[in-house]
Amino acid sequence: MALEGLKRRILNSVGLLRGKKTLDEEAVKEFTRSLRRSLLEADFNVRQTKDLTERIQRRLMEDEPRPGLKLETHAMNMVYSELVRILGPAREIRPHNQTVLMVGLYGQGKTTTTAKVAEWWRRRHGVKVAVIEADVHRPGAFAQLSQLLDGSGVEVYGEIDGKDAASIVRNGLRKVGTADVVIIDTAGRDSLDEDLKDELLDIAEIAQATERFLVIDAQVGQSAGPIAETFHDLVGVTGTIVTKLDGTARGGGALSAVSITNAPIVFVGEGERVSDLERFESDRFISRLLGMGDIKGLIDLAPEDLDEQEAMRLTQRLMSGRFTLNDMYQQMEMMSKIGTLDRILSHLPDGMFGMGSMSSSQKRAMQGNLERYRIMMDSMTQEEKDDPNLLKSERIRRIAKGSGSSEKEVKGLLAQWNKSKKMMRGMKGNRQFRRQMQSMMDVDDIELV
Ligand SMILES: Nc1nc2c(ncn2[C@@H]2O[C@H](COP(=O)(O)OP(=O)(O)OP(=O)(O)O)[C@@H](O)[C@H]2O)c(=O)[nH]1
Ligand SMILES: [Mg+2]
Questions:
Q1: Atom in ligand 1 nearest the alpha carbon of residue 276
Q2: How many domains does the chain have?
Q3: Which of 149-158, 284-293, 416-425 has the lowest mean pLDDT?
Q4: Choosing a second label site near 256 at 20 to 30 A (CA), which of 16, 228, 394, 442?
Q5: Quick check: CB of 244 below 6 Å from ligand 1?
């Protein structure tokens, strides 16, 4: 996976500082040279890479590491914060007088995201929102969008047998153009052939959109860079939306897309439902991207930093009684890496989490399981991941086939889920645990559903 590659390369670069006591100019240069190579190999654009490595070089020469902090940790913290900086703070878009054009390749989530963003603005800002379905290639696109927004109060314009996208947009703007926000969904492209390019250019010309959002699936990886470039050349991308971050993909491609278009991520999609949209937070995104836990000992941010918060958030969610396969996966992922949970676990009675502290071979075994679980989970529908009880023999067979595993392995995953769920239940009933969680999280009561 390309993204794994980026992470590995960054870790290798940081590894050059391992065991060093002081940072001389030579060591800093060697490190930044290696980092530059890592980023370039990961399809970062040249200017961004230069900026980033120069800033890190300067900061390394100027900033003293906190006492007791290893140099490699110090450097990793910087890489982290500079990557967060590239993605920038979330961009606030005022939902007034906006025409938004959604573009992207096939199946990335454009239509779903069109509905999500429309609902987001309508619900949160109380403004009038309309959408236009200008995809004349995907059969049933208009029906899909209408269905997603059924009963929502967002006006949907489309032409059932329309063949000409440009004229649909023209008619649509005439009909619903007075809304505060008009969002136009366009056809997915496999790759951009000339006809589709012309069609998109026509639409862009007529729409005179104030925002052009590129929709990218989190799984796309580094090819997101060239894809973004193509769309950017055509319509001038102003914002990026990363979809399917609810899955196991970490969304690294988005970084290279953003580094090419300079169009910040505005939203992330975290599920199939219209309400599954979140405003983007770069720190959470980068920590997920780098797999914070993986770099245990390398990353050591101040306590107010997010990885701890994220662990807390997950723990709190786990405690809430809902326990999906994704929750289990994330829990295991965190445990296998034990970045922050170690710190949390150290406050808890031994074995409270069913694991206490794990030996490194146990961690390795868990990592192996995770990889297999991820592959199996990729063959499941969202509904199945949310409610694994649905998984009876026929579905198990399908998932086994789809993921190249045996039925026994799929059943093993389900057994693990059942075991984890029971464990979580057990903890909920434990008053001592509850009190400790409360004091750690500094809340009066944890809501235990
Ligand atoms: N899990 C998850 N699924 C999503 C998300 N966004 C979209 N999907 C699903 O991805 C599939 C494709 O989504 P669409 O919105 O139809 O994608 P599209 O880009 O419009 O596709 P085309 O019109 O065919 O190019 C659908 O099954 C969606 O439900 C997301 O954030 N999370
Ligand atoms: Mg679509």
A1: 31
A2: 3
A3: 284-293
A4: 16
A5: yes
